[in-house]
Model the fold of this input.
Amino acid sequence: MPIAVAETISELRTITAEARAAGKRIALVPTMGALHAGHLALVHRASTIADVVIVSIFINPLQFGPSEDIDRYPRTLPDDLAQLEPFGIAAVFAPPVTEMYPSGASDTRVTAGRIGSLYEGRTRAGHFDGVLTVVSKLLNIARPDVVLFGQKDAQQVFLVKRMIIDLDLPIEVDVVPTVREDDGLALSSRNRFLDAKEKRAARGLSLALEAAESSADRGIDAVLAAAQSVLMGEHLVELDYLVIVDPGTFLPVDDGYQGRAVVLVAARVGTTRLIDNEEIFLTGVHS
Ligand code: AMP
Done:
């Protein structure tokens, strides 16, 4: 049976209301489409923890800045539906922009606060306000029991979890590990913009994270130096930021910090902006 595609809020609400009335546990997987194995890992995981899976496909204009070309974002709905077919999901929610923002971009925003203006948010002003606004709309529309996100977007995960706590939303968040190519490159809808040379260079991000991890017992400076030296060897990679954060606060770790930490990296490769991250365990004291 072809997947049901709901294009309106009321169509989706009918599907989820029926599921809820039948006592089913509902999972929502928010995406912007151009699906790849990373997204499918979320869908697979959703199908193991819920009875009814909804995948949303919506390219949210609010999270794109004026200098970011939203028209360039890949749109591949027929292929996305074909990839979702084997998972037996209940529905795809693929609303047009006018359904989500009937009076143009709404004035009301969920603000991501201070952490929302760091790292990704520094380069992409307003990005996380746009993300949190659309995620809260999607959560209110689908009213899932659980919502799934990829660790690939670590700052997004942190901010969504915090929004759910701060706004008392009765929804669980399930985080799925980053799916990578064999050579380590994190899967991303944007990878399709990389030519062969750029793709080789883009591996530098995951190699830098591996180098960081291998130095985790030698202190923060050594971790950063190890990652930086890998990135400096890739002349096609233009580094935006490389930072080690405390997963509890998402603020940069202080000198001497020990324990779980996340290394975040973002870079431009050609015209394509890529991000990646890796959790490490800092034990070291430098010499
Ligand atoms: P996007 O379509 O880029 O907004 O991504 C939708 C969801 O898929 C987000 O929760 C992402 O973190 C997640 N995702 C994207 N790429 C990957 C990946 N390589 N591994 C795991 N999750 C991913």
